[in-house]
Amino acid sequence: MDIHEYQAKEVLSNFGVAVPEGALAYSPEQAAYRARELGGEKWIVKAQVHAGGRGKAGGVKLCDSDVEIHEACEDMFGKKLVTHQTGADGKGIYRVYVEAAVPIEREIYLGLVLDRSSQRVMIVASGEGGMEIEDISAEKPDSIVRAIVEPAVGLRDFQCRQIAFKLGIEPGLVQQMVRTLQGCYRAFTELDATMVEINPLVVTGDNRLLALDAKMTFDDNALFRHPQIAELRDKSQEDPREARAADRGLSYVGLEGNIGCIVNGAGLAMATMDTIKLAGGEPANFLDIGGGATPERVAKAFRLVMSDKNVQAILVNIFAGINRCDWVAEGVVQALREVEVDVPVIVRLAGTNVEEGQKILAQSGLPIIRASTLMEAAERSVGAWRNDLSQGVKVRAVS
Ligand code: GDP
Ligand code: MN
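That is the input. Now the predicted structure with guanosine-5'-diphosphate docked in place:
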């Protein structure tokens, strides 16, 4: 789960990371009022969306009067901000964060990520802040400093000092850098984050080290341990298909293709998507109905997949261990009777009670395309989608 910049700044400041003074606003009037409260003569108005690259997309504006704050906000509220990270649809702006502007002397990149190959938290830093890390690694790879944290001993101060020296941070700010790194690391581990990014971390004109931007991502599976973080969820920033699925206890990932996948288990979902691609198609989603799927759950899954307008065929691929093929088959039949499904439906069942499951499908009288192997299922799905099934007829499930 992602959170907003202003939330990440609050979280990190509780761990000792210095951030500029700022305040949240839900309207242009409130933003101007907040700026007056903050004082000073220049402010930064920042669109709060779950994406980076806002600066280049017009989501970060420097203002030096009430009027300018109003204008900046009018361009933001209710609009969709499209950055290179949001996809073409963009993300809605419903909150802005107003900060007292800070004179920047130097911009630094700082990130903490899970490095899967070393299975450790890795700190990534660069003196070339302000640019995205992808651009830094493409254009200035030598500027990147990396450090791995041994979980048994945690992040050591000497490692922090080493990073500070490599970045050329002046001696007077090294202790502040240690504090910033330790704060980020503690926030990362204690809150089960998967990513903390401060870009830029700046040296100000008056020689302070401040996090001017902040991003945090958390492990969804650990959110139950951190209700104060779970509470920060903002559904307006999520793919509506994925948010709906999460509310129904299904894991769903929307993709760009046309073949909807209803599968049990993440591994089987991966294999199904691979096989669809191998057969020449593109998956429209990844939907895992999990173990012990009841007919109701299968019907919910159909509703969800059908709500994606790009879906032109649905492949149900179930390997029943804990699940039962007869239940899944009942779910498919029930769904096709209740939900408006006007695209071909391909079903491959294997495992527990597979004969009963096949019988239910066959006796339903519904135009369900059956397949016995995964490859066959993928080929038939792609075939049905391309409308050139070997039978030469377009098979459609009735609504
Ligand atoms: P992002 O584009 O979504 O990563 O948004 P950022 O919060 O990083 O803002 C983009 C850029 O705006 C930063 O890299 C800074 O160069 C600039 N910026 C943000 N806040 C301030 C500020 O207080 N003072 C000045 N001078 N520039 C700022
Ligand atoms: Mn940034």
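Residues 52, 199, 213 surround manganese (II) ion (ligand 2) (CB under 6 Å).
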